[in-house]
Amino acid sequence: MKHLFIFGTRPEAIKMAPLIKAFKSDSYFDVRVLVTGQHREMLDQVLEFFDISPDYDLNLMSANQTLFDITAKSLQGIQPVLKEFQPDNIFVQGDTSTAFVGSLAGFYEKISVSHIEAGLRSGDMTSPYPEEGNRKLAGVLATYHFAPTERAVSNLTKEGYNSNIFMVGNTVIDALLLGLKLIEEKGEEPYKEYFQGIDLNKKIILVTGHRRESFGEPFENMCRAIKEIAQENDVQVVYPVHLNPNVRSTVGEILNGIDNVHLIEPLSYPYLIWLMNKSYFVLTDSGGIQEEAPSLGKPVLVMRDVTERQEGIDAGTALLVGTERSKIVAEANKLLKNKDHYKKMANAVNPYGDGTTSQQIVKVFRG
Hints:
Layout (H helix, E strand, L loop, with lengths): L1 E6 L2 H15 L5 E6 L5 H9 L6 E2 L9 H19 L3 E5 L3 H12 L3 E5 L14 H11 L2 E4 L2 H9 L6 E3 L3 H16 L2 H6 L8 E6 L8 H16 L2 E6 L4 H11 L5 E4 L4 H10 L2 E4 L4 H7 L4 E3 L7 H6 L2 E3 L4 H13 L1 H8 L10 H10 L1
Helix pairs in contact: 1-2, 1-7, 1-16, 3-4, 4-5, 7-11, 9-10, 9-14
């Protein structure tokens, strides 16, 4: 059975990696990998870490590319690959433009599409944007829906999907456990050396923030909150700053020059999960980290008004704090100063799986 994995960003690569390795380990499957290169450098770092070599690389990354550019160029680039390889099934992941386009390409060629991480919904097409729309469009075109949680399954059934829905957990947990195992096997010295300027004996607050719907005043509020938290507490704030100029300019203007705030370059996946494992809690507006951090017992404060990962909120592993400075500061201080509150979040059960998602998906196609 011929499977084509299509992805283009770092988060997709992380979540696809354990699944690709699981399928490649079974001789029953003929597996090919196509990357669009929607993210370039960050994507390559993940591929190298997990030892995955793409069979097809569209290399679409260009300066100031728009959603129109990504969508049009990806669709045109995928078509000849489908003609050549003629896969029985296409795997797409999540909510990226590449996931939507991969699904659309499969639909045009009448090839079955398997949507990994199906059924997540924020209920707001403008947040996250354009991800909420991408995920719903991929779902409409998909043949198989691999949902991470019961809530995701419920979302799909409410929308009228009634076949080929499988609740399997999230491959991000497979990737996290595999990644930490690889780091342990290879040794932690490079990581300790890289972060030597950070006092790892203090409480580490890991920050990630880059959502485009927050640009402007909301993102400025987030940065001011981070500044206040750092100045009021004996902590080390570590912020790998996204390459987007809108992010870097605001972060630099508000957070530069604060002694215990470390503004560093974006981290490759292994360095990010190593640091996450050393952190006390996480402040983020990202998606995948809401799933990863709880597996390590790290509370997550989500700097968004809505999230398509409501399961973590319901389970108590994460808390929506919005983009108001006072709310973010109050909840961060509560985690830092109230041990019982911290333990309650840190010990909550992660709803996103146990690391066996990839094997469960393989079994679906093995029959």
